[in-house]
């Protein structure tokens, strides 16, 4: 292709495309309700939690194949829907792990050596995201993904000793030689020894 023909293909101005939205938050704050308020939504439920929401949805997905079948039907079928909502990503992850375990004939993704199970799972995630991109670009659908935040309980390990048990934001800890070390205490105070312990 010559440089002059590339110059003839320059795009100018805004080209509005459907949005990609990820709603991330704790249980019960209205993530699914928000998704139901999108323009003509259809839910792909991977968890049982839409009972109190007036919306249209596929049957509860019990496998990775169910999710992919729903995405394929939205791509190739005639329908009125303008938004696809996956509710939720955390349960979809479990379905993906189950698919990987089935492919590898193991009971647990951790049983696949050298953390390869998670690598195989990334390939499944790429398949889902590719299908969502196709719905967005070829069918003009908005994509809404719902995920849950979770406060995680863990034991604080400092210099090899178990000092306390508490909850904290998992982002507020660092990996040290003795395991994960929280940067804040349960009361929200910064730990004075966290840097030294994580060195």
Give a short summary of the structure.
The chain is an alpha/beta fold. Helices cover 35% and strands 23% of the residues.
Descriptive account of the structure:
α3 (64-76) packs parallel to α5 and α4 (89-104) packs across α5 (116-139). This protein is α/β, with parallel strands linked by helices and 199 residues long. The protein starts with a helix and ends with a helix. It has a four-stranded parallel sheet with strand order 1-4-3-2. Mean pLDDT is 82; it is low at 165-178, 180-184 and 190-199. The chain folds into two domains: 20-148, Rossmann fold (3-Layer(aba) Sandwich), CATH 3.40.50.300; 152-198, no CATH class. It is built from six helices and eight strands.
Percent of residues in beta strands: 15-25%
Number of helices: 6
Order of strands, main sheet, comes to 1-4-3-2
User: CATH fold name of the largest domain, please?
Assistant: Rossmann fold
What's the layout of helices and strands?
Layout: H1 3-7, E1 20-25, H2 31-36, E2 41-45, H3 64-76, E3 83-87, H4 89-104, H5 116-139, E4 142-148, E5 152-158, E6 161-168, E7 173-176, E8 179-182, H6 194-198
Parallel strand pairs: 1-4, 2-3, 3-4
Antiparallel strand pairs: 5-6, 7-8
Keyword list:
disordered C terminus; 4-stranded parallel β-sheet; 199 residues; globular; Rossmann fold; alpha/beta
């Amino acid at each position: 292709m010559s440089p002059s023909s590339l110059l003839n293909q320059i795009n100018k101005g805004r080209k509005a495309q459907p949005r990609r939205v990820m709603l991330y938050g704790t249980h019960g704050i209205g993530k699914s309700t928000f998704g139901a308020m999108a323009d003509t939504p259809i839910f792909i439920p991977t968890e049982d939690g839409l009972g109190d929401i007036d919306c249209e949805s596929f049957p509860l997905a019990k496998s990775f194949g169910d999710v992919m079948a729903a995405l394929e039907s939205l791509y190739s079928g005639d329908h009125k829907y303008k938004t696809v909502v996956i509710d939720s990503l955390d349960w979809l992850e479990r379905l993906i792990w189950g698919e990987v375990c089935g492919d590898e004939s193991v009971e647990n993704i951790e049983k696949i050596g050298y953390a390869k199970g998670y690598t195989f799972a990334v390939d499944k995630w790429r398949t889902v995201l590719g299908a969502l991109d196709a719905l967005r670009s070829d069918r003009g659908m908005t994509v809404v993904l719902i995920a849950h935040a979770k406060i995680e309980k863990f034991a604080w390990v400092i210099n090899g000793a178990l000092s306390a048990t508490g909850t904290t934001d998992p982002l507020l800890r660092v990996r040290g030689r003795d395991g994960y070390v929280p940067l804040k205490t349960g009361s929200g105070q910064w730990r004075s020894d966290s840097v030294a312990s994580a060195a």
